[in-house]
Design goal:
With 349 residues, the chain is α/β, with parallel strands linked by helices. It has two domains: 235 residues, Aspartate Aminotransferase, domain 2, CATH 3.40.640; 88 residues, Alpha-Beta Complex (Aspartate Aminotransferase, domain 1). Helices cover 38% and strands 16% of the residues. The chain has twelve helices and eleven strands. Strands 1-7-6-5-4-2-3 form a seven-stranded mixed beta sheet, sandwiched between helices. It has a four-stranded antiparallel beta sheet with strand order 8-9-11-10, with helices on one face. Strand 5, helix 7 and strand 6 form a beta-alpha-beta unit. The chain is globular, with a radius of gyration of 21 Å. 49% of the residues are buried.
Length: 349
């Protein structure tokens, strides 16, 4: 039976396949027997590669999913009476089905942000009720890098938030599902806008950038991970055949694959932005700083176009849609999509 035609769309970088170098590494480690649950040499190598990027004191715990990484990372430093403050577009607020509340037991407090980025002055409304038993106690500020709006925090912006958090007795968590895209945009090492900027807990992802699955929870300050190995087991995120998560990070980090993939997807997003700017009636709503392009287009056109190139609505009230590029998006994909949209817009008018 022949395979169906699998056209590359613009719905999500999760929809892309696995980079051949990652597949090759998975095949390489798929031999013989090694100790399970992370006590294998491949997992040891992967931990050291991450420490090389983030700092020698980094404690690394591999898990299956991004939601697992975010929720367990938060649960490791919070109690049920604590709250986490985040953007209203953050994954932990909009796309994790209440998992932080259910499994960490904490309260999620959101802040409206026009571009997905928190700023210290936005947080004041939640900075109250400390040591007052009738209020949840703020404990963590959580940011996404790159944000769900495709924007990127500078190292200075991250440091300002970390300093604000620490002055108020809070911790700073970073959802790094697209951290590689942010690093490419900034042109600096991972450590410059994480460990060195004061981030305490990092979800270090690669699934959206060429890996098959798996994330790394990274505690960047000594003492934060105490007892976490038990929490990971209770949270059903301890992989028995851990080498098949960690081996992906070996391929991802040892030869610069992360940079190659993220550079390409960012470049495709800029190319898509350029092509869409040439189409009358299409409005780009956010800065294109990573691999996301947010556009306003007529709903009728979007409905027809998404049947050919799948993508998601973002804000129904203003007919805003999200277009994501991936490590395997091609210039032809971009050109064909833009040409089809241009023709549809001509017919629409």
């Amino acid at each position: 039976m022949s395979d169906p035609e699998l056209k590359r769309g613009f719905a999500s970088d999760n929809n892309s396949g696995v980079h051949p170098a990652v597949m090759k590494e998975l095949l390489r480690v798929n031999r013989g027997h090694v100790v399970g649950y992370g006590d294998d040499p491949f997992t040891g190598t992967a931990r050291e590669l991450i420490r090389k990027e983030l700092g020698p004191e980094t404690e690394v715990y591999f898990v299956f999913t991004g939601t697992g990484a975010n929720v367990l990372g938060l649960a490791g430093v919070m109690r049920s009476w604590n709250s986490v403050i985040t953007s209203h577009t953050a994954h932990i607020e909009t796309d994790e089905c209440g998992a932080p509340e259910k499994f960490a037991g904490c309260k999620v407090l959101s802040v409206d942000t026009p571009d997905g980025k928190l700023k210290p002055e936005m947080l004041a409304r939640h900075m109250h009720g400390f040591d007052f038993e009738h209020h949840s106690q703020p404990k963590v500020i959580s940011i996404s890098q790159a944000t769900e709006m495709g924007t990127v925090y500078t190292a200075g912006e991250v440091k300002a938030l970390a300093d604000y958090a620490h002055r108020n007795g809070l911790l700073l968590h970073m959802d790094g599902a697209r951290i590689a895209n942010a690093a490419v945009t900034l042109g600096v090492p991972f450590s410059e806008f994480t460990t060195d900027a004061g981030v305490d807990i990092l979800s270090f992802g690669g699934t959206k950038n060429g890996m098959m699955y798996g994330e790394a929870i990274c505690f960047l300050k000594p003492g934060l991970s105490e007892g976490f190995k038990y929490l990971r087991k209770q949270g059903m995120q301890l992989a028995s055949k851990m080498r098949f998560i960690s081996a992906q990070y070996i391929a991802y980090l040892s030869g610069g694959l992360w940079k190659e993939c993220a550079s390409h997807s960012n470049r495709m997003a800029r190319e898509l932005q350029r092509r869409l700017k040439e189409i009358n009636g299409i409005k780009i709503t956010q800065k294109v700083e990573a691999n996301g392009v947010f556009v306003i287009m007529p709903d009728r056109v979007a409905a027809l176009l998404s049947r050919e190139y799948f993508f998601y609505p973002w804000n129904d009230q203003i007919s805003e849609y999200r277009l994501m590029t991936s490590w395997d998006t091609t210039s032809d994909d971009v050109a064909q999509f833009a040409d089809r949209l241009k023709n549809m817009m001509s017919d629409y008018r």
